[in-house]
């Protein structure tokens, strides 16, 4: 994107259209669908194991809670999402007008939005498949969905950009969404399968077998509100940036995507262990769930803070290596790197929100606390962003994002102990403080050392060694247990996950 379209009107128009798949990804793949369906499938798997005793293979297949769950949810989901995608295609001008009211020429954004709206259906199916497979401890096909997605985007964009311009990127998003479904389909059929649809005249025993489904759908509202409020941070960002000079939306987007990579990497730990926590909660073993959550928080926080130190310390070098070619100028590099440093201040908050929200939705009962905490953070984001954008432009928008997500993380950390799992909140907070000190020292070291080497690639590569070394040395000096006991933590974490 940076090479072909730089940071200007075309890239801004595409990013407005990309808001649709970003929201769809949050709702239908990452947050809402996973938080809803992974526990539902985990409960169904637990019931399958308890109900197979004394049944023939044919009887077990006919009464399989997992297949009954699929049969009662997937057809309805497909019909609903197809209807939503159709509405978005028709209402694309209205959508663009709401998302970016200050955009000078919205027509290109409208055309791109009509293409990206198709992902609502494909992402929903892909997210459903992913949740089911992860509950079955099958992680490779779900891990391949974004590889497929990027192959579709990049391949279509490279092949058609000369003919369609930035519309080729939007068409690639639609193509990539289809590939996300196809790459998981064989594994879904093999591990899960398609169950019979639930009939209207189902008996009481049939309804009892479908109870996990009813419990899951009882959680829809709080999960969806949480996911929508979380993704609305991007809507606030683009709404406020639409009135700034061309390229502001693109600078914010490039900065956000690169800055969030440490958070994405750190949350892989929680993604792998989420089904384990859900099954422990379903079995009533809250002590086991507490230990897993605390260990997840320790490892995820360590990973994200080390990554934060690297992102802030070497921001200009990272952006220059990744983007500065073609239509992306050196001025774009400086603007994006500066914004990225502000964004990175909120990375720990993003990581904690992702890690702490999962236990809330592991229980087989709805809970509104994460949605309320997220709404409080979103309110901080909106108010602070509206105030700060007048004086600091994109920096004010990025700073408001960091303030809002940190507010939500603090509320979730305080609230999880009394509502879901009795983790040691004070101990976790002290650990986070020590890791933050180590991250600050590593960040300062990288900020000073980075410009000393003129070649940006060599500088960033050495930073990947220098920053972790300083982080580890400082963490050891201040006796941060997550640093000194890291090998033991990793070994224990993944032995337990198996």
Automatic annotation (TrEMBL):
Q: Which keywords does this Swiss-Prot/TrEMBL entry list?
A: Cell membrane, Cell shape, Membrane, Peptidoglycan synthesis, Transmembrane, Transmembrane helix
Q: Which domain of life is it from?
A: Bacteria
**What name appears for this protein in its UniProt entry?**
Virulence factor MviN
Asked whether the keyword Iron is assigned, the reply is: no
- Recorded topology in the membrane: Multi-pass membrane protein
- Keyword Cell membrane in annotation: yes
Species name for this entry? Streptomyces bambusae
Looking up Pfam families in the UniProt record yields: MurJ
Location in the cell: Cell membrane
Q: Which InterPro entries match?
A: Lipid_II_flippase_MurJ/MviN, MurJ
Span-the-membrane segments of this chain are 77-102, 108-131, 143-164, 170-192, 213-229, 263-284, 296-315, 335-356, 368-389, 395-416, 428-450, 456-478
